[in-house]
Write a structure and sequence with these properties.
Largest sheet: 6 strands, parallel
Bound molecules: uridine-5'-diphosphate
Oligomer: single chain
CATH class of the largest domain: Alpha Beta
Strand content: 5-15%
Number of domains: 2
CATH superfamily of the largest domain: Glycogen Phosphorylase B
Number of helices: 19
Shape: globular
CATH topology of the largest domain: Rossmann fold
Distance between the termini: 42 Å
Mean pLDDT: 88
Strand order of the largest sheet: 2-1-3-4-5-6
Radius of gyration: 24 Å
Length: 459
């Protein structure tokens, strides 16, 4: 029996038409290539999404690679500072921070040949500065031609896109000014929601994140599998469970969750599970975990888990009675999407990308602060039927808007829109003809010396 391609398997969730449309779009881009660069293979939403959609983009036909930025602890301390200050925290980059950042970026550029791709997507601030090492040449040989023929794009290397997953509503001005020096060299900015549109005069695209219903984290699990995962990790299978899955990070407010749980516990005997595996590019995790641990250690009904296990996340989200996301800032919040997909009632802060997902009292509950969070958790624990109805709506919301197939389509469309007008590495024959005609015009200096990008075209 012929094995189904992976994309075909998504027809079960989004319909055959949607899958066929993706194949069609991908077929038009066969031979083209794209690269994503971020700074960790695991931990956090970006890595989660890249893991799920890059194989699907490849299957659709667009050759897509995933490259990783290398850095040491000092570098990631600086980039975490950038991350925090872009989300509005009052921290400033020092001149040493900038030296550390630029040295690591420069080192990375010495072993990443990003010029070979038709489009480069840089995820988040960590690798943002890479663009400075892949300068566009503006060869004099073409200077009169673009003017005459409106082919300005001929002078460019491939387009670069900055994909920011953060909440950019109130970035620290100094950090933003620093990043802008790099961002000015990008062709376009992609953010998770309209409200994160930046002040840069660049085309902006809006692309909500999405989850993969077939991944280990989201696939259906039998009740037996759920029970086995819980017992392996010493989780009580009886007591009502409140769950938050999130990196130990100040923006995820684990202490706030513990305080809300304590309020609920006064009236309902329940347990709290905080699961937060560490991300390789997040050096703050240890300290925030230790704070949570000292708050929680005397309460046997609080479990803190730091294992990295998609199946355990899946099992906990399926077992939980209420899922909480008490973030203080949140670019989007894939953990909310994951829990909603599993039909769980979610109580989550009214911040960042969360209200894009939760329509209050329809498919989840939005909260403001610890007391409100506790009240809403208690309400859901006491009103099972309502919680169930909310959970059902939540699943449908995710099916409609936040499954990975939509993201694959968005990426293919983005690629088409942005590379249009660029003569990139892999040329179609019509583009090649145009180029050779241009090359015959006038007395042009030898290409090999002056225009490495165009040189590749002829190899
Ligand atoms: N995650 C995980 N294990 C953990 C904590 C988080 O696998 O212990 C995953 C979580 O399931 C989700 C992602 O990391 O897929 C977090 O994405 P989100 O957008 O919620 O937040 P971010 O960490 O990107 O700020």
């Amino acid at each position: 029996m012929m094995q189904l391609k992976k994309l075909d398997k998504y027809a079960e969730f989004v319909g055959e038409d949607c899958v066929q449309q993706i194949y069609k779009m991908g077929a038009k881009l066969a031979e083209k290539s794209m690269v994503h660069v971020n700074s960790t293979y695991y931990g956090g939403g970006v890595a989660e999404m890249l893991t799920s959609y890059i194989p699907l983009l490849n299957e659709a036909g667009l050759k897509t690679e995933w490259r990783l930025l290398r850095g040491d602890r000092d570098f990631f301390m600086v980039t975490k500072k950038m991350h925090n200050s872009l989300q509005g925290m009052k921290v400033e980059l020092t001149s040493e921070d900038i030296t550390t950042y630029e040295a690591t970026i420069s080192q990375n550029s010495s072993f990443m040949n990003l010029e070979w791709y038709d489009m480069v997507v840089i995820d988040d601030p960590q690798p943002c500065g890479m663009v400075a090492h892949y300068r566009r040449e503006s060869p004099s040989l073409y200077k009169p031609l673009p003017l005459l023929l409106s082919l300005a794009e001929l002078q460019k290397k491939q387009p670069w896109v900055w994909r920011c997953h953060l909440d950019l509503t109130s970035p620290n001005r100094k950090t933003w000014r620093y990043l802008k020096k790099y961002l000015n060299d990008y062709e376009a900015i992609v953010v998770s929601a309209r409200k994160y549109k930046t002040s840069l005069r660049k085309p902006h695209y809006f692309m909500a994140p999405a989850i993969d219903p077939l991944s280990e984290k989201n696939r259906r699990l039998s009740s037996w599998e759920v029970a086995r995962e819980l017992s392996r990790n010493g989780i009580d299978s009886q007591k009502p469970m409140i769950l938050q899955v999130s990196r130990f990070d100040p923006w995820k407010d684990p202490l706030g969750v513990i305080h809300a749980y304590r309020k609920v516990k006064k009236e309902i005997d329940c347990q709290l599970v905080l699961m937060g595996g560490m991300a390789a590019d997040d050096p703050e995790g240890d300290a925030i975990f230790r704070n949570a641990y000292s708050e929680a250690e005397k309460d046997k009904d609080i479990s803190l888990l730091t294992v990295q296990s998609d199946r355990l996340v899946n099992a906990l989200q399926r077992r939980a009675d209420v899922v909480v996301q008490k973030s203080l800032r949140e670019g989007f919040g894939l953990t909310v999407t994951e829990a909603m997909w599993k039909g769980k009632p979610v109580v989550a802060s009214r911040v960042g990308g969360i209200p894009l997902q939760i329509e209050n009292r329809v498919n989840g509950l939005l909260c403001d602060g610890i007391d409100d969070c506790a009240t809403k958790i208690s309400y859901l624990l006491k009103h099972k039927r309502e919680a169930e109805a909310i959970g059902k709506n939540a699943t449908e919301k995710v099916r409609k808007d936040f499954l990975v197939t939509r993201l694959v389509r968005d990426e293919l469309e983005l690629f088409q829109a942005i590379t249009r007008g660029f003569i990139t590495k892999s040329l179609k024959s019509s583009e090649q003809m145009l180029l050779s005609m241009l090359l015959k015009l006038g007395d042009l200096p030898p290409l090999k010396k002056t225009v490495p990008f165009l040189k590749r075209v002829h190899e």
